[in-house]
Amino acid sequence: MRKVQFANGEYYHLFNRGVDKREIFLDQKDLDRFLQSMSEFNTLTPIGGIYAASFHKNNPLRNLVSKTEALVDFICYCLCPNHYHFVLRQSTDRGIEKFMHRLGLGYTNYFNKKHQRTGSLFQGTFKANHIDSNEYLLYANAYVNLNYKVHQLTNGFFCSSWEDYIQPQRKKQVLRYRYHP
């Protein structure tokens, strides 16, 4: 049983890293696929896999569902070579659990097939902390957005929502998320 119980409308800091602290993004395509997975698996209506769903990209009902029935709302994220951090708001019952299960399984399957490996990619189930105050939300937001600086990453494969905060006119092409102040 998980220590943190997820509730709709509440905010959570989620994180995980590669098993044995291994890198989980070996190239730009891996990073792009994870970002795509963050978007594609965030829907009440299961899509199966990204490959299978790609055949239905032009279905306007599928696109409508994925935008209006998100499991979680992304507040911010940071993807580092061997770990990731999210601040999420759960928008539907068991939304975080469903989303994280789909994301972990889907990305692991992709990564293992691409890199000809087997077994777990992530170090157990994801970790979660409930964000129970405005102060903690502000702290978690800064910590997650700037996590690549905490680890002094200046090159390699990493990505953060920080640019979306400092350049709000910039639109993410892959990740669709909504801010909730």
* Radius of gyration from the alpha-carbon trace, in angstroms: 16 Å
Spans of at least 5 consecutive residues with low confidence:
59-66, 172-181
Main beta sheet strand tally, sense and closure: 5 strands, antiparallel
- Number of helical segments with 4 or more residues: 7
CATH homologous superfamily assignment: Transposase IS200-like
Helix content: 25-40%
CATH class: Alpha Beta
| CATH-defined fold name | Alpha-Beta Plaits
The CATH architecture name reads: 2-Layer Sandwich
Question: How far do the termini sit from each other?
Answer: 30 Å
Q: Please identify the structural class as seen in this structure.
A: alpha+beta
Total strand count, please? 5
Strand content: 15-25%
Question: Can you describe what's shown?
Answer:
By secondary structure, the protein is of the alpha+beta class. It has a single domain (11-166), classed as 2-Layer Sandwich (Alpha-Beta Plaits). Helix content is 37%, strand content 17%. The chain contains seven helices and five strands. The protein has helices at residues 28-40, 50-53, 60-68, 95-114, 134-145, 147-150, 162-166, and strands spanning 11-17, 72-80, 83-90, 127-131, 159-160. Strands 4-1-3-2-5 form a five-stranded antiparallel β-sheet. A hairpin with a 2-residue loop joins strand 2 and strand 3. It is globular and about 45 Å long. The two termini are 30 Å apart. The relative contact order is 0.24. The model is unreliable at 59-66 and 172-181 (pLDDT under 50).
